[in-house]
Amino acid sequence: MTVFGHGTFLILLYLDKFLTGILHYVTAETKFKLSNLEIKLDKSQPQKPVDHWKEKQEALLKWKASFQNQTKNNLTSWGYNPKANATPCNIWTGISCNAAGIVNMINLTNSGIQGTLYEFTFLSFPNLEYVDLSLNQLFGAIPPQITSLSKLIYLDLSYNQFSGKIPPEIGLLNNLQLLHLNENQLNGSIPREIGQLKFLNELALQTNNLQGAIPPSFGNLKHLTTIYLYNNQLSGSLPSEIGNLKSLVELCIDNNNLSGPIPSSLGDLTNLTLLYLFKNNLSGTIPKEIGNLKSIVDLELSQNQLNGSIPTSLGDLSNLEKLFLSANKLSGSIPQEMENLMKLTVLQLDTNNFSGYLPQNIFQGGSLENFTAHTNHLIGPIPKSLKTCKSLVRVRLEGNQLTGNISEDFGDYPNLQFIDLSHNNLHGEISQLWGQCPQLATLRIAGNNLTGRIPPEISHATQIHELDLSSNSLVGVIPKDFGRLTSLVN
Ligand SMILES: *[C@@H]1O[C@H](CO)[C@@H](O)[C@H](O)[C@H]1NC(C)=O
Ligand SMILES: *[C@@H]1O[C@H](CO)[C@@H](O)[C@H](O)[C@H]1NC(C)=O
Ligand SMILES: *[C@@H]1O[C@H](CO)[C@@H](O)[C@H](O)[C@H]1NC(C)=O
Ligand SMILES: *[C@@H]1O[C@H](CO)[C@@H](O)[C@H](O)[C@H]1NC(C)=O
Ligand SMILES: *[C@@H]1O[C@H](CO)[C@@H](O)[C@H](O)[C@H]1NC(C)=O
Ligand SMILES: *[C@@H]1O[C@H](CO)[C@@H](O)[C@H](O)[C@H]1NC(C)=O
Ligand SMILES: *[C@@H]1O[C@H](CO)[C@@H](O)[C@H](O)[C@H]1NC(C)=O
Ligand SMILES: *[C@@H]1O[C@H](CO)[C@@H](O)[C@H](O)[C@H]1NC(C)=O
Ligand SMILES: *[C@@H]1O[C@H](CO)[C@@H](O)[C@H](O)[C@H]1NC(C)=O
Ligand SMILES: *[C@@H]1O[C@H](CO)[C@@H](O)[C@H](O)[C@H]1NC(C)=O
Ligand SMILES: *[C@@H]1O[C@H](CO)[C@@H](O)[C@H](O)[C@H]1NC(C)=O
Ligand SMILES: *[C@@H]1O[C@H](CO)[C@@H](O)[C@H](O)[C@H]1NC(C)=O
């Protein structure tokens, strides 16, 4: 137990007031450390042990009295008990104590509290290690006095309506391992002092109104495993110091206003499984070092201004399951090395400036569910490996210059719901096999050079509600079973 280990001015004040009450519960070791003080304080008027709990109870009740709605919260167990040693530990909802009987945790998650922290007497609880006030309706500022909780390991204020700035003083809580301030209305910039929280493991500041740059001081937080900063208005460039955070597993800064390049140092994050940078304003090329992210499972860089071509090193990411590169300015051909990504379930390459052929074996992994490459300048045939890829759910290849006779390019797909091949240069006949896709809801092959008739077998795909075969050279009649289609364009 190191309750009085630091001997700071702050803690001495606390001792002066409550020492004898506390001593009732502390260990021999601590008593020894405090022996001088004890003697000194004994000369003054010592308070009885009950006063320790009286003061804690009063502090909590004062805070509760400040709530806007006294009936909404579920703190009915909170009531003053004048008996000696009447501890709120484990009796008052959400108040827990350590083995020595000292309040070390306040957990009032999802307790219907509507109020502020302004009446919370932080100085009364200097031994708090865990504070979880998530999922309430707390509002107003986060008081800088929160730094009195110098032992704090765990601070979760997420899912409330806190506003104003994150107090820079939070950098003094140097034992913090977890800081969750997400889903509030915090504004201003992220204080660089957060870079002093050297034991921080999890940082969650997402879904606020935070502005300004990501402080380079984040590079000091060597123990960080997760950084969630998404859904803010952060700007400036991504500090290359993030590459120092070798323990990082998840880095999510999507839906901000970051500009400048993706630093090549991110390639050093070999434990990273998830990298979300989509919906920003990042420019320049995808650094080839991204190919060093051996653990990455989900890489999402869509909706930026990235240019250049896909580095062939992406083919080394053998654990990759999701790759999102949509809506950038990427060009060049899609590297054949992408065929090595055998675990891909989602591959989104649409709305770029890609040219050349699609790699012929891109579907060989057999796990791909969602594939989009629409709105590019792709040429050449539909990859042969697509025919046998039974896992497909959604396929979008429209708006390219794909060529070939498609009558034998497609198989039957048990899960396929949506396929759009419109506005390419495909020719040949419509395969009967579309009728053997039991989930198929949308089939679009408009704006090609299809010939022949619509095979009546298509109507065996009983889920189909949109069939767009317009702007082709089809002949004959519409099979009569199609009466139930809600949308049929021919
Ligand atoms: C307080 O909360 C209760 C229960 O949610 C609700 O019925 C009551 O209208 C609220 N009172 C005020 C003043 O908001
Ligand atoms: C607080 O309590 C909830 C359930 O009541 C639990 O899920 C959560 O882990 C607790 N928080 C801490 C810090 O122990
Ligand atoms: C508090 O009450 C709410 C409903 O008002 C309930 O959803 C929640 O589970 C309760 N929380 C606790 C910790 O009992
Ligand atoms: C932050 O929000 C507070 C109130 O919530 C407001 O007074 C202040 O102007 C805002 N600051 C910025 C920089 O937007
Ligand atoms: C990376 O992950 C492995 C396995 O979980 C772990 O043993 C190792 O310590 C991690 N590396 C860092 C730098 O955290
Ligand atoms: C994004 O940042 C740029 C400067 O880099 C600025 O001009 C623009 O207004 C910002 N956009 C938003 C939505 O904040
Ligand atoms: C991207 O940056 C440009 C130039 O800095 C700016 O004009 C534009 O508003 C930014 N876009 C977004 C979505 O913030
Ligand atoms: C990418 O765009 C930048 C301007 O933002 C330009 O200087 C650079 O030449 C482009 N690179 C490629 C490979 O197109
Ligand atoms: C897209 O690529 C074509 C060549 O395939 C090139 O002519 C065009 O300038 C590129 N457009 C953009 C916006 O990069
Ligand atoms: C593929 O898309 C469907 C429909 O949008 C979605 O339900 C499914 O979760 C996606 N698959 C993956 C692996 O994300
Ligand atoms: C397309 O291929 C099929 C099967 O190989 C063949 O029967 C048909 O004549 C071809 N159609 C065109 C228009 O070349
Ligand atoms: C469609 O195919 C016919 C015959 O194969 C050909 O004469 C015509 O040019 C093609 N039209 C287009 C738009 O490719």
Automatic annotation (TrEMBL):
Any GO BP: response to other organism
Signal peptide coordinates: 1-28
Keyword Secreted assigned: yes
Domain annotation Disease resistance R13L4/SHOC-2-like LRR: ranges: 189-276
Localization per record: Cell membrane; Secreted, Cell wall
One Pfam family hit: LRRNT_2
Membrane topology, from the record: Single-pass type I membrane protein
Protein name stated in the entry: Leucine-rich repeat-containing N-terminal plant-type domain-containing protein
Record organism: Prunus dulcis (Almond)
